[in-house]
């Protein structure tokens, strides 16, 4: 009885029956809610100190139980599904057209002039030069690889023209320990984090030095050393993966306070934001409060579909607010704005144990969606040329460097010439390397070769032996002997 009396102090809105108190549970009727069965022993032990000391703090779950109904004079909604909403007697539907669009953050204008002299660009001159060199390297590599695909030397490629500042700028503001999930237009992220030209070329040619052992199509890079998960062709699947990884990082950050905390970073296009995975990922990230940066590249087109046919709302940033996520829209052609926004977003993501942040990076996709696409079939060439001439991230950063007398035409010519040579050298070297051993077709599936796999291997060996003209196995490192090695090593 004393325990029940004490409980009444902490649950003033609940009514307790006076009978059956000797049982293991009591029936509690809250206002406008059904009966709940609550273990009396657990309530007493968790909420009261039986040794006579002051009661401990009430768990959060019981604090939430107080918002089950509103008082007659309440001015705010107390429904659990819409906290902090005020009551009104005006019948007004929310019309997005009546609201101003979310502003786009920028640091420098199209001429490379700093808009806020006091704040500046928050980037040292040497660092800005390094960023520019990476952006130029990326643009030259894209041009050469696109031409190589047209020559039949590569099977597939995707360029980043118009979006170099998003990838290079955001990656430069992250910690090397942060876990990254890319889509397929983030070559600049890899380059900025240390992916070498040789590694790019080895993956594009799927040769024996490819870290993926030739199992992925070109441009689907991955690097365990750089903490970047391998790219998948399937659209938007990396978004919920990033949310799950961020939850794991949240636990690790809490369990290892002496280790610098990490965040998960997820890149995707505005077209991927139309997939269900996007909504599921943002919702779980918000409800679990995980340290994750969702970086959306809104480049105007999802393959051949313009944004006008993708959504009617205010871009992708408006969706972040709907999920209760800190959100910002940034000029993706301004690498300084990209860097500063990413830095601040990472800081916010690590506050209070973790929280997600959505960044919508605005850009224009200058190139075709991929080498399998002809964008002039669904947009005017003059539109593309206008964007290339009027504004792009490489030109804007160069103008800033020139304004500070850090760059000139001679340096530009020397950089482009030397960079082109380095890329071509890596390209020619990777092209000459042999393909990965055939045995890797069966590796890393099971811990040991199964009987079914042994049958497949024997069938493959038989076909390759009987039809040598149809299958050039000499281009693969180790030839057919690699299959014999696999059978021997796995027995």
Query: What is the spatial order of strands in the main beta sheet?
Result: 4-3-5-6-10-9
Number of discrete helical segments: 16
Q: Tell me the distance between the termini.
A: 71 Å
Rg calculated over all Cα atoms: 29 Å
CATH class wording of the largest domain:
Alpha Beta
Q: What is the residue-averaged pLDDT?
A: 87
How would you summarize this macromolecular structure in one to three sentences?
With 491 residues, the protein is an alpha/beta fold. It has helices at residues 2-10, 40-47, 60-64, 125-150, 164-172, 187-193, 197-205, 238-255, 276-288, 317-322, 335-349, 381-390, 393-403, 409-432, 451-466, 481-489, and strands spanning 25-29, 35-39, 179-181, 228-229, 264-269, 292-298, 301-302, 305-306, 326-331, 357-362.
Could you describe the 3D structure shown?
This protein is of the alpha/beta class. The protein folds into three domains: 2-68, no CATH class; 125-432, Rossmann fold, CATH 3.40.50.970; 438-489, no CATH class. It is 40% helix and 9% strand. It is built from 16 helices and ten strands. It has helices at 2-10, 40-47, 60-64, 125-150, 164-172, 187-193, 197-205, 238-255, 276-288, 317-322, 335-349, 381-390, 393-403, 409-432, 451-466, 481-489; strands at 25-29, 35-39, 179-181, 228-229, 264-269, 292-298, 301-302, 305-306, 326-331, 357-362. The strands form three sheets. The chain has a six-stranded parallel beta sheet with strand order 4-3-5-6-10-9, sandwiched between helices. Strands 1-2 form a two-stranded antiparallel ribbon. The protein has a two-stranded antiparallel ribbon with strand order 7-8. α4 crosses α14 and α8 runs parallel beside α9. The longest helix is centred in the N-terminal third of the chain and has 26 residues, at 125-150. The radius of gyration is 29 Å and the shape is globular. The N and C termini lie far apart (71 Å). This is 2-oxoisovalerate dehydrogenase subunit alpha. It catalyses: N(6)-[(R)-lipoyl]-L-lysyl-[protein] + 3-methyl-2-oxobutanoate + H(+) = N(6)-[(R)-S(8)-2-methylpropanoyldihydrolipoyl]-L-lysyl-[protein] + CO2. It is found in: Mitochondrion matrix.
């Amino acid at each position: 009885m004393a325990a029940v009396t004490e409980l009444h102090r902490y649950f003033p809105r609940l009514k307790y029956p006076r009978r059956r108190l000797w049982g293991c549970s009591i029936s509690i009727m809250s206002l406008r809610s059904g009966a709940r069965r609550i273990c009396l022993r657990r309530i007493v032990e968790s909420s009261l100190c039986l040794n006579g000391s002051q009661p401990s703090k009430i768990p959060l779950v019981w604090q939430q139980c107080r918002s089950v109904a509103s008082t007659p004079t309440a001015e705010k909604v107390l429904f659990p599904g819409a906290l902090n909403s005020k009551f009104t007697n005006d019948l007004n539907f929310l019309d997005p057209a009546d609201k101003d669009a979310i502003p786009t953050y920028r640091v420098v204008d199209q001429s490379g002039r700093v808009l806020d002299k006091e704040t500046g660009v928050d980037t040292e001159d040497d660092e800005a030069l390094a960023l520019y060199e990476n952006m130029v390297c990326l643009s030259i590599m894209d041009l050469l690889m696109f031409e190589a695909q047209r020559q039949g030397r590569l099977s597939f490629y995707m360029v980043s023209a118009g979006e170099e500042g998003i990838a290079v700028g955001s990656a430069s503001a992250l910690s090397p320990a942060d876990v990254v999930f890319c889509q397929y237009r983030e070559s600049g992220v890899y380059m900025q984090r240390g992916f070498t030209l040789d590694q790019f070329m080895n993956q594009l040619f799927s040769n024996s030095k490819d870290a993926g052992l030739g199992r992925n199509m070109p441009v689907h890079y991955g690097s365990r050393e750089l903490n970047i998960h391998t790219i998948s062709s399937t659209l938007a699947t990396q978004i919920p993966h990033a949310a799950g990884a961020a939850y794991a990082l949240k636990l690790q950050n809490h369990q290892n306070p002496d280790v610098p905390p990490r965040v998960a970073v997820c890149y995707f296009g505005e077209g991927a934001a139309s997939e269900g995975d996007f909504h599921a990922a943002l919702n779980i990230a918000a409800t679990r409060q995980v340290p994750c940066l969702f970086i959306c590249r809104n480049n105007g087109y999802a393959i051949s579909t313009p944004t006008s046919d993708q959504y009617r709302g205010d871009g992708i940033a408006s969706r972040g607010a709907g999920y209760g996520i800190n959100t910002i829209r940034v000029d993706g052609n301004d690498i300084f704005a990209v860097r500063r926004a990413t830095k601040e977003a990472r800081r916010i993501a690590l506050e209070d144990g973790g929280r997600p942040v959505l960044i919508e990076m605005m850009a224009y996709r200058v190139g075709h969606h991929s080498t399998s696409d002809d964008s002039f079939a669904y947009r005017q060439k003059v539109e593309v040329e206008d964007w290339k001439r009027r504004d792009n991230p490489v030109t804007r950063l160069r103008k800033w460097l020139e304004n500070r007398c850090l760059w000139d035409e001679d340096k530009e010519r020397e950089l482009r010439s030397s960079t082109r040579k380095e890329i071509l050298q890596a390209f020619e070297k990777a092209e000459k390397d042999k393909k990965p051993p055939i045995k890797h077709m069966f590796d890393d599936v099971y811990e040991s070769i199964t009987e079914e796999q042994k049958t497949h291997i024997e069938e493959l060996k038989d076909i390759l032996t009987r039809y040598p003209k149809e299958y050039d196995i000499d281009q693969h490192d180790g030839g057919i002997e690699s299959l014999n090695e696999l059978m021997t090593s796995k027995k």
